[in-house]
Amino acid sequence: MIGRMILTYPDAARRTGTFLLLALITLMVYSLGVSPAWIGMVLPTSSEWLAANPALGRLVSAVMIAVIAALNWKALRQLPRHWQITGVWLELFVLLMIFFYSFNLSFAFIAKKISFLISQGVVTTLYISVISIAVATVIALLGAIAKLSRNGVIYGLATFYTSLFRGLPLLMQIYIIYLGLPQVGYVISAVPAGILALSLCYGAYMTEIFRAGIESIPRGQSEGATALGLSPSQTMGLVILPQAMRVIIPPTGNQFIAMLKDSSLISVVGVWELMYLARTQGQTEFRHIEMLITASMIYWILSIGLEFIQSRIEARFGRFNVR
Amino acid sequence: MPTSIDTASLEITLSGVHKWYGQYHALDDINLSIAPREKVVICGPSGSGKSTLIRCVNRLEAHQQGRIVVGGVEVGEDERKVDAIRREVGMVFQQFNLFPHLTILENCILAPMWVKRIPRAQATEIAMDYLNRVRIPEQANKYPGQLSGGQQQRVAIARALCMNPKVMLFDEPTSALDPEMVKEVLDTMVSLANEGMTMVCVTHEMGFARQVADRVIFMDQGRIVEEGEPDEFFAHPKTDRASLFLSQLLH
């Protein structure tokens, strides 16, 4: 019945659908308990009425938000795709900034501390992450080759390693390396311990990514290379890995971004990286939230940098896929 | 047993070769000798062990019993010997197995540069020469994915030839091609045969076999059932199994 109505009156059906969607958004916004205070700010003369009718005010507020969202949607639809993307990013970013602004942050405090946060915290975070990423990549490559090995000893080593380091919480690994290694007579300072823990942990995750990437290349490729006389390592380096990169890079980019933020766990052993400074600098003047939000935004900016690098590398290794 | 290959008159000998995949007897007492410059076509129903046989010659598969000797060097566990053999034995596959991330030219110069340590300029010169011979020099800077199946297979032949092999193994080179592309690949193989290359071809292209083969080998269930000159084999197969196979093929 409904199906036939939709087919016979497509326009009416679409309008009804739009209306229902709007009603649904309104209901959701209303039931989330939106405050009508913002109408009072935009339109000061209405604040008395809003104070007198709180329930009705909420409803009006919800309807207006739904209508604004709908108009916004319509407006963005007019634009070409590229500008749609830019528009969505800008709007959401402004909303996020308004959200942070609502915390009543002291920008003077942020301005005072940010240079130290960057010169000490970001630098430490970055160099720990970059070294860990490089080491983890090497470990992952070796781990993946070991996991594909027919040699039982090598396979056993690789599986135990990935199982252990994927299985233990990263925080625990940091403690074990920093506090545990001195027990067996090897004293390690905090930064190398952190780098070691991050490399081993992410190397284990990335081993699986590399293995899957290598296995995704059809067997004919290594047979073709072998028949031409290439050695196993030449086959891997010249034929298999360059192709596997296309599969390996996107999840590896994920891992790098995750590692960048997980480097904050090293703060537990007292390394002056970004998160540690954000917590300690905020404490002195009870301005925790300022420092935490600033640090978060810095992490975000660094992640965007990694995303950018990832897309560049992806384009490079995908260029043979043209037709 | 020397490791250096006798390249002047490279002969392939298989004696008493057996291979099993688990319980499955893939090669059953293969005895075969291929003279220099000889053209041998191997045919037979699917699963008869044709591909396995030629893949044992350059040790893409390992045989478990018997001896395979290529140019005086035995194919076996010794990797240096196997490497020496692979340098003299080119192979063309059913699925081409070109490297999709490299251009046509890069496909052709990869092995000469890394295996034979030939400088890039010289390797490029050799590669362009062979790409001319298979009549696709203008595609040199494209990627394999941009070429038709027939063109890809001709590139695969040129790539193998760039290593200057004494023997070429063909593993069903036209089976994955659209019908209209079969001829261009077969023409390339015929001109290669006319130049005196030793060739071992697994193929069902009976026209090609009649035209170039010195000998046809018919396999079934891992055994060599029958062998003979092509005209004799196609006109008067000696075994029932071969005549049944041929009757199905020609209809």
TrEMBL record, chain A:
Key words of the record: Amino-acid transport, Cell membrane, Membrane, Transmembrane, Transmembrane helix, Transport
Residue spans crossing the bilayer: 20-43, 55-76, 88-110, 122-146, 153-178, 184-205
Residue intervals of the ABC transmembrane type-1 domain: 122-310
Gene3D superfamilies: MetI-like
Keyword Hydrolase tagged: no
GO BP field: amino acid transport
Localization per record: Cell inner membrane; Cell membrane
SUPFAM superfamilies: MetI-like (SSF161098)
UniProt-listed InterPro entries: AA_ABC_transptr_permease_3TM, ArtM/GltK/GlnP/TcyL/YhdX-like, MetI-like, MetI-like_sf
Record has Kinase as a keyword: no
Protein name (Swiss-Prot/TrEMBL): Amino acid ABC transporter permease
Protein source organism: Sinorhizobium medicae
UniProtKB/TrEMBL annotation, chain B:
Domain ABC transporter: 12-246
Record's signal peptide: none
Protein's name according to its UniProt entry: Amino-acid transporter subunit ATP-binding component of ABC superfamily
Species annotation: Sinorhizobium medicae
Matches recorded under PROSITE patterns: ABC_TRANSPORTER_1, ABC_TRANSPORTER_2
Pfam family, one: ABC_tran
Matches recorded under SUPFAM superfamilies: P-loop containing nucleoside triphosphate hydrolases
Keywords: ATP-binding, Nucleotide-binding, Transport
A GO term for molecular function: ABC-type amino acid transporter activity
Family classification: Belongs to the ABC transporter superfamily.
